[in-house]
Amino acid sequence: MSDILNKILAVKRDEVAAALAVKPLATLRSEAEAQPPARDFVAALRQKIDSSAAEKIGAGGTAGDTLKDMAAGAIRHIAVIAEIKKASPSKGVIRENFQPAEIAADYARHGAACLSVLTDRSFFQGSPDYLRQARNACTLPVLRKDFLVDPYQVYEARAMGADAILLIVAALSLAEMQAMEAIAQSLGLAVLVECHEPAELDIALQLKTPLIGINNRNLHTFEVNLDTTLSQHQRIPSNRILVAESGILAPSDVAQLYAGGVRAFLVGEAFMRAPSPGAELARLFA
Ligand SMILES: O=P(O)(O)OC[C@@H](O)[C@@H](O)c1c[nH]c2ccccc12
């Protein structure tokens, strides 16, 4: 099988070279630094995971509301990062009627903790404009979902309004990730570091970020297996947040991962194929 990840990374390097020729790093950096402050991605996740009856009352809810919520099963210690993705290299076009602002508002109404928006054009039919539209339509923190190969793209992420970036261990050296993490930190961006196999997790844990993603999809072959998360999750220290990524399609998948201790989930395709992505979020995590 041709290695899709390497193909994508080669295109990304070309994109960075082309972008640099149009906009020098210093200009981009000023744009990034001129943005209003980022929304707190990590806090948004923690708030959902830690939500409890007591905290809810403390936050201004009433005991009656809280009991009602509990009875309805609405108080669960789960944080969902809801993805906005038109297409993928493995599935082709996933959603024809693609309105990022509407989808973002729908996700927010149905309790998403954060958003993830694909900004890659060549393989996922994404766009920085989609990220801006989604973020303007709600108050949720937004992850720029793309393949970062160069510090330039970290500034680019903040300049387009992103609140978090993804660093993929399979795509970068530890030194590269540490450099990009430091820039992200200086800009107020959260970092989700994504790994797939145990050796990659060892590397991911050397970063400072609390957000450790385990991708159930192998980016070299596209094979998906939820055991990828379940078999590694006990290796994540309790001060980190494990995010289970990809291939979560049915309530039984959520139940299995939740029973295994997973509290944060990144879901795209299952939501994108539904008429109301937000309603599907509520259904999948009910
Ligand atoms: O659509 P899914 O199977 O629910 O997966 C979402 C997300 O995990 C997936 O889009 C993803 C995970 N890591 C990535 C890296 C790049 C692009 C996309 C991804």
What does this structure look like?
With 286 residues, this protein is α/β, with parallel strands linked by helices. The protein has one domain (3-57, 75-285): Aldolase class I (TIM Barrel). It has 14 helices and ten strands. The strands form two sheets. The chain has an eight-stranded parallel beta barrel with strand order 1-4-5-6-7-8-9-10, surrounded by six helices. Strand 6, helix 9 and strand 7 form a beta-alpha-beta unit. Helix 2 packs across helix 8, helix 6 (100-109) packs across helix 7 and helix 8 packs parallel to helix 9. Residues 53-60 have low confidence and may be disordered. Indole-3-glycerol phosphate binds next to strand 10 and helix 13.
Count helical runs: 14
Order of helices and strands: HHHHHEEEHEHEHEHEHEHEHEHH
User: What structural class should be given to the helix and strand makeup?
Assistant: alpha/beta
Largest β-sheet summary: 8 strands, parallel, barrel
| Outline | globular
Features of this protein?
14 helices, binds indole-3-glycerol phosphate, Indole-3-glycerol phosphate synthase, eight-stranded parallel β-barrel, 286 residues, decarboxylase, alpha/beta, TIM Barrel, lyase
Nutshell version of this structure?
It is built from 14 helices and 10 strands.
Question: What is this structure's SSE topology?
Answer:
Elements: H1 4-22, H2 25-33, H3 41-50, H4 53-58, H5 63-71, E1 79-84, E2 87-88, E3 92-93, H6 100-109, E4 114-118, H7 128-136, E5 142-145, H8 151-159, E6 164-168, H9 174-187, E7 190-195, H10 198-204, E8 211-215, H11 227-230, E9 241-245, H12 251-259, E10 264-267, H13 269-272, H14 277-284
Helix pairs in contact: 2-8, 6-7, 6-14, 8-9
The chain binds indole-3-glycerol phosphate.
Pathway: Amino-acid biosynthesis; L-tryptophan biosynthesis; L-tryptophan from chorismate: step 4/5
Pfam family, one: IGPS
Keywords: Amino-acid biosynthesis, Aromatic amino acid biosynthesis, Decarboxylase, Lyase, Tryptophan biosynthesis
